[in-house]
Write a structure and sequence with these properties.
The complex is a heterotrimer of chains A (120), B (602) and C (255).
Chain A (H helix, E strand, L loop, with lengths): L5 H30 L5 H23 L7 H26 L12 H5 L1 H4 L2
Helix pairs in contact in A: 1-2
Chain B lengths: L10 H9 L3 H6 L4 H31 L9 H8 L10 H37 L7 H20 L18 H4 L4 H29 L12 H32 L26 H35 L6 H14 L15 H29 L8 H18 L2 H4 L1 H7 L3 H31 L5 H27 L27 H20 L1 H13 L57
Helix pairs in contact in B: 3-5, 3-6, 3-18, 5-8, 5-9, 5-10, 5-16, 6-8, 8-9, 9-10, 9-11, 10-13, 10-16, 11-12, 13-16, 13-17, 16-17, 17-18, 17-19
Chain C lengths: L16 H29 L13 H26 L3 H30 L1 E6 L4 E9 L3 E6 L7 H6 L7 E4 L3 E6 L6 H28 L5 H4 L1 H31 L1
Antiparallel strand pairs in C: 1-2, 1-5, 2-3, 3-4
Helix pairs in contact in C: 1-5, 1-7, 2-3, 2-7, 3-5, 5-7
Classes of the chains: A mainly alpha (120), B mainly alpha (602), C alpha+beta (255).
């Protein structure tokens, strides 16, 4: 961005303000969605994460100038994203993929023994 | 973080000022990458020796369980109190020494030596840079390392002693052992991780930004490539361990239950006073997400060193430079998705086991490509058998043994038998001890004249090499047999409890001959310690009495690190550097000399 | 001796050193927070059905804090743009606002922490649960003001008809009393760990921004280009901290 002259900067300032308003709207939307009692947990989670991702894209893309960044940075971030996905996905997969007959702690036993906590 | 560079303009005045620096700023708070490299080198060699000393004491307990340790037993009792009552190593002390041996060797010894010391000293020279990209951050990362080391050392003397749950610190064991050893361990690790992260950022930025004109990616010496990939591994694999360490710290200090499941029974079968709901496997996942790439952090820089020395002493270009580079990138990439092969015994399902088994087998392919390229490089070379070359040559079969014995561990079905036995110990020590450490020794003998202007003694170097090679194999070869027979690791009595002598006719009991090998292995370990004496004396005496080098390029090498004055001044090069050719132009037909430096115009 | 590309970008990469450095550092930060997020997911899907608490946190306060952080993000980028347009005065104003926002964020966060640490769950010997804020604690009795706002007060509502009156409990009747600190359950453990780590990042960022706003801004006179780079780099870090919060807020407060 260092090669920008003052005129370009003024243009981007308008864009920054637009992103700022969009972020505020996104925040209000996500809070509003959480108050609207949606039955499906999956949809609630998906909506919240979708809005968060859009906001994250706006911050990273415009405030951090990732929209017009150099290839080297893209490469570093792409490999980071890949390994992060691997860490998250494989860890959760490893939890779900267990031999038949495995009982996860808390699936049944704790639910019954601690009604007070379960009611939270 | 803010951008920091010490040497703002005007440069001239700064340079003059630098000459006036006193001892402290020149040697302790230096921002010169070579001084920092040597700081790292000496500190990590001391830690290597210390970590090795721990195991020599443990080997006594394994070979002669519950007998007072001769000579130093009394001293141990004085320093550590009841943990070594009567000069006998208690089981707690054995556990603490075992955990600290692993921690010190990996995080305070080999990684700082391989990555930080050699990387700092050699990389900027080889890419033709004046210094690292962020010299002040470089200094801070050494200081963080030193602080982390001191914290680890101090932990021996706190009540309850040092961490006892192994270098892997599996929860809930690590959390439930009484005493604060584990807490101090985590604190130390936070410093060491910080140091590594800062170092990794610095190395990557330096290699990307500060390459001399003409130094394209495919003209980089292989050693620089290995450091580049290593830095990336550290950068992306260490933070999950840092996260895990923070959570374990919370478990320890704030009594959370990240890694403590519901209904956990603490020592004595009493239900622990924890809220529960945590997952012990979570620790293992996060630990091994670092832990396995860490293996490549240990081995890759050694491969880089060996590559430089092989090319130099066969007087031939490295065979298959490009395939080496791509294999290296492949190894670095794959190293992130193999970690759960350390966890086959935790009850993973068949699908996930198959996945990790497959990636584990795939990662052996590029490793074999690298090793094969090294072997083929030897073909038809007129080999100079000097000390660095001997160590580099020995690296090849030793690492080969270490790597190939890893295959049965990578397969889920055979690992179930071999897991946690001495076979595993032998396997990874072949990779790291006669493998990596031989590579590092080769590097020390190789770059010593550049750092000091004097050669190390060849005769004593060879004595050091042959004795080390012999004793290394006498130590680790019998362990394969012990492990395959089912002898478990981490037993303070060396397996006596499971011996046939103790329980005759027990199924799977350890035979006398297996138990007796404990003593022979221990003798070899102590002898290996003695075999390092020639090296230690050689290292220090040669600084003052070694043969002076007659040129800046005593090995007649091609890379840029040898085209500097000896020792290189602050700022490294006396003339502007431009690179015209690849890194290994040895014995090019039609050239007057059998080596053509990278900066020689065509 | 001068290290090249401290100010001007290197031609083939198009980057100056510090910019590459901060992005590398941020990559490692992604892995750090990423590992904690992964842990969150694992702990949450691994929790017993119904055991994962909901509504323990105050959403309006969290929303205000989110807006505070978003505001600080726009002021950071405006401060940098001001330097680009050679308006040092405006830079000072914008960055001053950033610092104010940072302080406000940490202030609100500590209020939330305080709220949790004074929020108690009291299990009586007869099995009933009283849940609310601690008013008074002596050797003989404990006074709790049952919480009305939070979902966690359901249990208390059932056991005591008047949820808003203070409840005085003799110590002899108490089986277990524990506040809502990280030790209380796994949700609070990950909540405190993630937000504390994030708050540390806010403080660290504010420290750097504060330095560059105060004593460090002298460099504007001697080397404006390098100073602008520093503001850009510190801004990148600040936006990243904002980015983490964008995910933390829905994950911890709303879901």
């Amino acid at each position: 961005m260092s090669d920008h002259d003052a005129h370009d900067i003024q243009k981007s300032v308008r864009r920054y303000l637009f992103v700022f308003y969009a972020l505020i709207v996104g925040t209000i939307l996500t809070v509003g969605a959480s108050y609207a009692k949606i039955e499906s947990v999956a949809i609630t989670v998906a909506v919240a994460l979708l809005i968060a991702s859009v906001k994250a894209f706006l911050v990273a893309g415009y405030f951090m100038h990732l929209i017009s960044e150099k290839k080297m940075i893209y490469g570093i971030l792409a490999s980071t994203a890949f390994f992060f996905t691997g860490l998250m996905y494989l860890t959760v997969w490893a939890r779900d993929q267990v031999p038949i007959g495995t009982i996860h702690f808390g699936d049944a036993a704790t639910h019954q023994s601690e009604p007070a906590k379960a009611s939270h | 973080m803010q951008p920091t560079t010490t040497h703002s303009h005007p440069a001239g005045t700064h340079e003059e000022h630098h000459e006036e620096l006193g001892f402290w700023q020149k040697y302790i708070f230096s921002t010169d990458h070579k001084v920092i490299g040597i700081q790292y080198g000496i500190t990590s060699l001391i830690f290597l020796f210390f970590g090795f000393s721990l195991i020599t004491l443990m080997r006594w307990q394994i070979a002669y369980p519950n007998k007072p340790i001769p000579v130093v037993g009394h001293l141990l009792e004085k320093m550590l109190g009841t943990a070594a009552a009567g000069g006998v190593m208690s089981s707690d002390l054995y556990n603490a020494f075992g955990a600290m041996h692993g921690t010190i060797m990996v995080f305070l010894g080999v990684v700082p030596l391989a990555f930080a010391a050699f990387g700092n000293f050699v990389v900027p020279l080889q890419i033709g840079a004046v210094d690292m990209a962020f010299p002040r951050i470089n200094m801070v990362s050494y200081q963080a390392y030193a602080v982390g080391g001191v914290i680890m050392l101090v932990s021996f003397f706190i009540p309850g002693g040092a961490a006892q749950a192994g270098w892997t610190s599996y929860s809930p064991l690590a959390t439930l052992i009484p005493g604060e050893g584990q807490t101090v361990w985590i604190l130390g690790m936070v410093f060491l991780i910080t140091s590594s992260l800062l170092g990794a950022v610095n190395f990557i930025a330096t290699i990307i930004q500060l390459r001399a004109p003409g130094m394209t990616w495919m003209r980089l010496p292989f050693f620089v490539w290995t450091q580049f990939v290593t830095a990336f591994i550290l950068l992306l694999a260490f933070p999950p361990l840092e996260a895990a360490a923070l959570m374990q710290l919370m478990d320890k200090v704030a009594h959370t239950s990240f890694f403590l499941p519901t209904g956990l029974a603490a020592v004595g079968g009493v239900a622990g006073a924890v809220s529960g709901g945590g997952s012990p496997l979570l620790w293992q996942h996060l630990f091994w997400f670092l832990g396995h790439p860490e293996v490549y952090v240990l081995i890759l820089p050694a491969m880089g060193i060996v590559c430089e020395i092989l090319a130099n002493n066969t007087r031939k270009p490295i065979w298959g430079y490009k395939s080496l580079v791509y294999s290296l990138l492949g190894v670095g990439f794959l190293s992130f998705i193999v970690w759960a092969h350390h966890m086959y015994l935790t009850g993973m399902g068949t699908k996930i086991s198959t996945f990790f088994q497959t990636t584990t087998m795939i990662i052996s392919v590029p490793s074999v490509v690298i090793l094969s390229a090294f072997f083929i490089t030897l073909w038809g070379g007129s080999i100079r058998f000097n000390t660095p070359m001997l160590f580099a040559l020995a690296f090849l079969p030793m690492f080969g043994i270490g790597g190939l014995t890893g295959l049965p561990l990578g397969f889920n079905f055979s690992d179930i038998h071999l897991h946690d036995t001495y076979y595993v110990i032998a396997h990874f020590h072949y990779v790291v001890a006669p493998g990596t450490i031989f590579g590092l020794m080769a590097g020390i003998y190789f770059w010593y004249p550049k750092a000091t202007g004097r050669m190390m003694n060849e005769f004593w170097g060879k004595v050091h090499f042959w004795l080390s090679l012999a004793f290394m194999n006498l130590i680790f070869q019998p362990m394969f047999a012990q492990g395959m027979a089912g002898m478990l690791r981490r037993m303070a009595d060396g397996g006596a409890n499971y011996s046939l002598a103790n329980t005759p006719n027990a199924i799977g009991g350890l035979s006398d001959s297996l138990i007796h090998r404990n003593a022979s292995i221990s003798h070899a370990a102590w002898a290996l310690g003695l075999a390092q004496i020639p090296f230690i004396i050689n290292f220090f005496v040669s600084m003052y009495n070694g043969k002076r080098v007659t040129s800046d390029n005593p090995w007649e090498a091609t890379t840029l690190d040898w085209q500097t004055p000896t020792p290189p001044p602050h700022g490294n090069f006396t003339k502007p550097i431009r690179v015209y050719r690849g890194p290994y132009e040895y014995s090019v037909p039609g050239h007057p000399k059998d080596f053509t430096p990278q900066d020689q115009p065509s | 001796m001068d290290i090249p590309y401290v100010v001007q970008p290197r031609q083939d990469t198009g980057l100056y050193n510090a910019k590459l450095g901060i992005w590398l550092f941020l990559a490692s930060e992604v892995m750090l927070f990423g590992a904690l997020f992964s842990s969150y997911i694992l702990l949450r899907v691994g929790a017993a059905p119904g055991a994962w608490p909901h509504g323990l946190l105050n959403i309006p306060i969290g929303t205000v804090n989110t807006l505070v952080l978003i505001t600080s993000s726009i002021t950071v980028v405006m401060a940098w743009a001001s330097l680009k347009m050679n308006q040092f005065g405006r830079f000072k104003v914008f960055q001053g606002f950033t610092l104010l926002c940072a302080l406000m964020f940490v202030g609100i966060k500590s209020y939330e922490y305080h709220d949790k640490f004074t929020h108690y769950e009291v299990i009586l010997t007869d099995g009933t649960v009283v849940d609310g804020h601690l008013i008074e604690r002596t050797k003989e009795h404990v006074v709790i003001h049952p919480a009305a706002k939070h979902g966690a007060s359901n249990a208390a509502d059932k056991s005591h008809g008047d949820a808003h009156a203070e409840v005085k409990i003799p110590v002899a009747q108490i089986k277990k009393i524990e506040n809502y600190g990280p030790w209380h359950n796994t949700y609070l453990a990950i909540y405190f760990t993630l937000t504390a780590l994030h708050a540390l990042h806010v403080l660290g960022g504010a420290l750097v921004i504060g330095y560059l706003w105060g004593p460090g801004s002298k460099m504007w006179k001697t080397d404006p280009e390098r100073f602008t780079n520093r503001i850009e780099v510190s801004g990148l870090f600040w936006h990243f901290v904002d980015l983490v919060w964008i995910f933390l807020f829905p994950v911890l407060y709303l879901l």
